[in-house]
Design goal:
There is one protein chain. The chain has helices spanning 19-25, 81-89, 116-129, 142-153, 175-178, 198-205, 207-215, 218-225, 243-246, 268-281, 284-287, 293-300, 333-338, 353-356, 358-371, and strands spanning 2-4, 43-48, 53-59, 66-70, 93-97, 135-140, 158-164, 313-318, 342-347. With 376 residues, the chain is α/β, with parallel strands linked by helices. The chain has a domain at 2-182 and 295-371: Alpha/Beta hydrolase fold, catalytic domain (Rossmann fold), CATH 3.40.50.1820. Helix 1 (19-25) packs across helix 10 (268-281). It is globular.
């Protein structure tokens, strides 16, 4: 295992392969009074096993209870900075890995190596390395799929589960399980057979073209993808429902329009690290996650008790999320049936909820943990 540290106020205590990463890590701690709890800096570490390498971020006391944050597409563990800094002050040992295919973690060349089974094995190895104490697992987007699978397949690794922006599908997250749940008032089947999931279908039918479009201008692709949700999109068809008919995410241009990143979502230095990570791998590894539906459904069906989750589950829904909101459709129904101790909270956010509503998510999770006596 390797690690990189940055002490408060120091610019020389860290050795990293890239200067930009130093800028992104920065000083994680905020000044507090002498009587307050200790503050912690964000640390980058790497775990190497015989199977893979995982880069992860850590913040908080080494002996604190575990809270593990899993990002989705197209992100890295650094997206959880705000939540990690907040919960570390509460005494949590916060961990956020770059998942397989992202950041500085293992990025195999074979598409078939990006199954949920593979990623669960990766994070299980990380969890063992961290001591294996039952953790609070927190997921966003595809990270919610992985976090749910950990709890479903290996419940002893968990105390509770927090999902944001993507509901749990006990039969696996795949086109075959989510397309039947589409709101057909917004997406008539004759016009939108795959509804808001058309972009997902496009990966399975035009994978190389989809990746090439994203790779044409990686920085603008990422900046155009990470935009806040708007209330005006509620009840309307998502642009992602027309990717196939438009010939790709960016239409005839086949590249993202020049786009500046939104600093309200990503601090500039963190966004630079995100861009640099995609300059290294390109979008192919991250998009490969969409290509293993059959394997993912088969894996989900191996979970005991039909994938029932007997741990407390919090789902935080983005009301402005045109893809994954569970309001006004049946997308959340399988989760409700599989989670007997389920709490649902909604916030005024689009899909990038942990970035759009940083403090509100912390407040929501913190209150829920207290209500379930899970604070220690």
């Amino acid at each position: 295992m390797t690690s990189d540290h940055l002490q408060p106020g120091s610019s020389t205590a860290i050795t990293l392969p890239r200067r930009i990463f130093l800028l992104a890590i920065g000083v994680a701690a905020v000044s507090v009074s002498a009587a307050a709890a200790p503050t912690y800096v964000l640390v980058s570490r790497s775990l190497r096993t015989s199977r893979q390498t995982t880069r992860y971020f850590e913040c908080g006391p080494a002996d604190g209870p575990l809270m593990i944050f899993l990002h989705g597409w197209p992100s890295i563990g650094l997206m959880w900075r705000a939540q990690m800094e907040a919960f570390s002050k509460d005494g949590w040992r916060c961990i956020a890995p770059d998942l397989r295919g992202y950041g500085s973690s293992f990025a195999p060349s074979e598409i078939a190596q990006y199954t949920i089974r593979d990623v669960v094995l990766d994070v299980a190895e990380l969890h063992d390395h961290l001591g294996g104490r039952p953790a609070i697992w927190v997921g966003h987007d595809w990270g919610s799929v992985v976090a749910s699978a950990v709890v479903a397949h290996e419940p002893d690794r968990s105390r509770a589960l927090v999902l944001t922006s993507l509901a749990y599908q006990p039969q696996g997250h795949a086109l075959s399980t989510i397309v039947p749940l589409i709101d057909r008032k917004i997406y008539p089947a004759d016009e939108y057979p795959d509804g808001q999931w058309d972009y997902y279908r496009y990966y399975t039918t035009h994978f190389d073209a989809a990746v090439a479009d994203l790779d044409a201008d990686k920085k603008s692709s990422l900046a155009s993808i990470f935009r806040s949700g708007e209330v005006g999109g509620v009840g309307k068809a998502s642009p992602n429902a027309a990717v196939t008919r438009n010939g790709g995410r960016f239409g005839a241009a086949h590249r993202a329009p020049p786009t500046k990143p939104d600093p309200a979502l990503w601090p500039q230095a963190d966004f630079d690290v995100l861009v640099e990570s995609f300059e290294g791998h390109g979008f192919r590894p991250s998009c490969a996650w969409y290509m293993n539906d059959d394997a993912n459904v088969a894996y989900a069906r191996e979970a005991p008790n039909g994938g029932r989750l007997d741990r407390p589950v919090l789902f935080v829904n983005g009301e402005f999320d045109q893809i994954c909101t569970i309001t006004g459709n049946r997308q959340g129904d399988p989760m409700r049936g599989a989670c007997p101790d389920l709490t649902i909270e909604s916030v005024a956010s689009g899909h990038w909820l942990p970035l759009e509503r940083k403090e509100e998510l912390v407040h929501t999770v913190r209150n829920w943990l207290q209500s379930k006596n899970l604070t220690k």
